[in-house]
Amino acid sequence: MEWIKNNLDRTFLLRFALMVIMIMHGVISFVEMSVIDFGEALADVFGFGVMGIPTAILVKSIHVLTIPALLLNKYLKPLAMLNIIIFIMGIILIHWKHGWYVVGGGSEGIEFNFLLIFSFATFIFPNGLVDSKS
């Protein structure tokens, strides 16, 4: 009963949705080994050199580590900060030049990362930006 009370709280639906996204974003890239392609792109296109593949593995590992944290409602602030940094870098390196839209008015744009950044920010600021009780 205590586990249910602590984990199925008001943030559960958001945590569940983010968990599914992190599974698809992180786990699948290791299963398919597309993490290597990602690392090679970081190395060749973005100038990461020999650090391209290790950086890609680190990024995807952070996504994978986020999955149990979201499920168990633990360590969300530090992992949210790391994921936000990753998503901001994704915007800067990849998505910005494609515009806003992921589909429709364009493709590979920033809108999905924008939503993920603010979704993860809710764990950093669980009471909002201003304390409404003061």
Give an account of the 3D structure.
The chain is mostly helical and 134 residues long. It has one domain (2-124). The protein is 69% helix and 0% strand. It contains six helices and no strands. Helix 4 (52-72) crosses helix 5. It is globular, with a radius of gyration of 16 Å. It starts with a helix and ends in a 10-residue tail after the last helix. Keywords: Membrane, Transmembrane, Transmembrane helix. This is Putative oxidoreductase.
What Rg is obtained from the alpha carbons, in whole angstroms?
Answer: 16 Å
Number of helices: 6
Shape: globular
Instruction: Tell me the domain tally.
Output: 1
Distance between the termini: 32 Å
What are the segments in which pLDDT stays under 50 over at least 5 consecutive residues? none
Structural class: mainly alpha
Order of helices and strands: HHHHHH
Topology readout:
Layout: H1 2-7, H2 12-31, H3 34-44, H4 52-72, H5 76-95, H6 111-124
Tags for this model:
134 residues; single chain; mainly alpha; 6 helices; globular; transmembrane helix; 69% helix
Summarize the structure.
The chain is mainly α and 134 residues long. It has helices at residues 2-7, 12-31, 34-44, 52-72, 76-95, 111-124.
